[in-house]
Amino acid sequence: MKKGTIFDLKEFAVYDGPGLRQTVFLKGCPLRCNWCHNPEGLRVEPQLMVSTPSCTGCGRCKEVCKHETCIACGECVAVCPLHLRRIAGQVMTSQELADLILENSDYYAKYGGGVTFSGGEPLLQAEFLLEVLSLLPGVHKAIETSGFTDEETFRRVVEQLDYVIMDIKLFDEELHRKYTGVSNSKILTNAKQLCAGDKPFVIRIPVIPGVNDNEENYRRTAEWIAGAKMLEQVELLPYHKTAGAKYTMVGEKYRPLFDTDQKVQILQNIFREYGIRSSVL
């Protein structure tokens, strides 16, 4: 039985696929998007999160800590009088996660939903994910992914799904490297695989001011996916200033390379030109 790490399970999700859904957030991501709003999902291993601005410095956490560097053991979590500390990340077997999902799966099915695997990047834990999917017969299964993986892994996972939500963040490869830390070649290749397939899917674009909210990026993306018979729509997700709120909790600094006060451009008419339905989340 394989083990994996999740950092959240959200109930009653309405933007992560058809109907009412559970969304499981798998930990770990190979991208470092400059606008990421879930920094606790970047590293695969569990980690301590602390609401430092509210800390009174009572010292109880230091009294119980037995380690020179944090190993996310959780000893300090229990003694914090203001409940400012928590562990982000829970290691589970595939059966444990499947059982957790199945507890309420009948309820979500009544509302046309199921479960969506998000992240982080769920494909980073592909073998664990595949085993979990095999343990969910009859459940509508979806993924929210960057598509950053090899073609064979992408194909194997998509075959076990009912629905795919996939990001195309930036079409230009150099800009993609600048703002996410990786090339987009694997992503575009897998997007083409999705376009040629028979699974219903959505392309999601996180709209970042001054980065990808321009006609060239929208148009090149539209050209790449135009004509895909199973494409339901393009979802535009505008940047929100709260994206950097959790970085101090994991001991990091939020360093956006763009003007967070700039207003984003939503050019839905470009997608309509290519016969593609679009919506703004």
From TrEMBL:
<dbReference type="InterPro" id="IPR007197">
    <property type="entry name" value="rSAM"/>
</dbReference>
<dbReference type="GO" id="GO:0016491">
    <property type="term" value="F:oxidoreductase activity"/>
</dbReference>
<dbReference type="InterPro" id="IPR034457">
    <property type="entry name" value="Organic_radical-activating"/>
</dbReference>
<protein>
    <submittedName>
        <fullName>Glycyl-radical enzyme activating protein</fullName>
    </submittedName>
</protein>
<comment type="similarity">
    <text>Belongs to the organic radical-activating enzymes family.</text>
</comment>
<keyword id="KW-0004">4Fe-4S</keyword>
<dbReference type="InterPro" id="IPR013785">
    <property type="entry name" value="Aldolase_TIM"/>
</dbReference>
<feature type="domain" description="Radical SAM core">
    <location>
        <begin position="15"/>
        <end position="277"/>
    </location>
</feature>
<dbReference type="Pfam" id="PF04055">
    <property type="entry name" value="Radical_SAM"/>
</dbReference>
<dbReference type="GO" id="GO:0046872">
    <property type="term" value="F:metal ion binding"/>
</dbReference>
<keyword id="KW-0560">Oxidoreductase</keyword>
<keyword id="KW-0479">Metal-binding</keyword>
<dbReference type="InterPro" id="IPR017900">
    <property type="entry name" value="4Fe4S_Fe_S_CS"/>
</dbReference>
<dbReference type="InterPro" id="IPR017896">
    <property type="entry name" value="4Fe4S_Fe-S-bd"/>
</dbReference>
<dbReference type="GO" id="GO:0051539">
    <property type="term" value="F:4 iron, 4 sulfur cluster binding"/>
</dbReference>
<dbReference type="InterPro" id="IPR040074">
    <property type="entry name" value="BssD/PflA/YjjW"/>
</dbReference>
<dbReference type="InterPro" id="IPR058240">
    <property type="entry name" value="rSAM_sf"/>
</dbReference>
<dbReference type="InterPro" id="IPR012839">
    <property type="entry name" value="Organic_radical_activase"/>
</dbReference>
<keyword id="KW-0411">Iron-sulfur</keyword>
<dbReference type="InterPro" id="IPR001989">
    <property type="entry name" value="Radical_activat_CS"/>
</dbReference>
<feature type="domain" description="4Fe-4S ferredoxin-type">
    <location>
        <begin position="61"/>
        <end position="90"/>
    </location>
</feature>
<keyword id="KW-0949">S-adenosyl-L-methionine</keyword>
<keyword id="KW-0408">Iron</keyword>
